[in-house]
User: Which sequence fits this backbone?
């Protein structure tokens, strides 16, 4: 079973400088419990590809499936619901709300899903425990280190038990040692929770944590190879994940003091909050 599949994805931007082929005919398949790293130089198309895989952006051509559902065939409302129920996003800039505690930030996706309070508390505590921040639940982002803030971002991304985790340079703002521990954490969560993850980085040191590495160059895949030393892709945990249930549409989010930097990020935050 694939958790995430894309077929012949292309994205062409038209700007004053002419046409930019940011992604060209890209095929991707990610299984539950598999960590795929997308690597490439600045401008290679990593963010464009991740935005297409998270269906935050529509491809010029090509198709994306999340589980058995063709995401690229859905209208915006159905797509927002699909993203909310199946995808978790981690951002380079963390994307936390400064006035909320770590626990409240992690809780937001569950509030949107109208998860009962007792279950919310339980799942938030579990997510914070998984990222090693059980003792920091009450602290606000400004009172946490960069690595801790990103771990809160990861806890928020997994608290609703997504099938797929998309992380665009999640370690881009961290020093190399902290980046290593955050990447280790992502790898561990992916393997133990059976999440399918696509993570971009240009840090060669982080690639060794991957099960598979996709190399991008000028919008094209130049290599897509398994990392032989990594753990097996399929895990029992994947089978234990609860089925994805349809949920009523969530209310509009309140004003967000942590302004998103890109349209895609804005859309993901709108879905998540
Ligand atoms: N909205 C846009 N309009 C026009 N061109 C764009 C747009 N977004 C991206 N591009 C172009 O597409 C190409 C790929 O950009 P992308 O942001 O995907 O690269 P990247 O690999 O994520 O780079 P970085 O490592 O710097 O984040 C670049 O040439 C970029 O200028
Ligand atoms: Mg990028």
Assistant:
């Amino acid at each position: 079973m694939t958790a995430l599949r894309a077929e012949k994805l292309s994205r062409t931007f038209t700007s004053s400088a002419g046409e930019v082929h940011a992604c060209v005919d890209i095929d991707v398949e990610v299984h539950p419990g598999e960590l795929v790293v997308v690597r490439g130089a600045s401008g290679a198309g990593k963010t464009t590809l991740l935005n297409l895989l998270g269906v935050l952006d529509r491809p010029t051509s090509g198709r994306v499936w999340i589980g058995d559902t063709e995401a690229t065939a859905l209208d915006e409302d159905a797509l927002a619901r699909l993203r909310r129920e199946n995808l978790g996003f981690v951002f380079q800039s963390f994307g936390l709300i400064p006035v909320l505690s770590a626990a409240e930030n992690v809780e937001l996706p569950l509030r949107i899903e109208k998860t009962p309070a007792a279950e919310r508390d339980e799942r938030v505590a579990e997510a914070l425990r998984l990222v090693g921040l059980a003792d920091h639940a009450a602290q606000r982002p400004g009172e946490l280190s960069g690595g801790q803030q990103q771990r809160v971002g990861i806890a928020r991304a997994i608290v609703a038990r997504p099938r797929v985790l998309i992380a665009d340079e999640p370690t881009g703002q961290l020093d190399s040692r902290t980046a290593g521990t955050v990447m280790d954490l992502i790898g561990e969560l992916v393997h133990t929770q059976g999440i399918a993850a696509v993570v971009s980085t240009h840090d060669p040191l982080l690639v060794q944590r991957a099960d598979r590495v996709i190399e991008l160059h000028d919008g094209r895949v130049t290599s897509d190879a398994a990392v032989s030393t990594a753990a097996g892709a399929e895990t029992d945990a994947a089978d234990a994940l609860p089925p994805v249930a349809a949920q009523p549409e969530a209310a509009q989010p309140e004003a967000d003091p942590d302004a998103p930097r890109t349209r895609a990020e804005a859309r993901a935050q709108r879905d998540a909050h």
Observations:
- The radius of gyration is 17 Å.
- The first strand starts at residue 4 and ends at 15.
- Residues 230-259 have pLDDT under 50 and may be disordered.
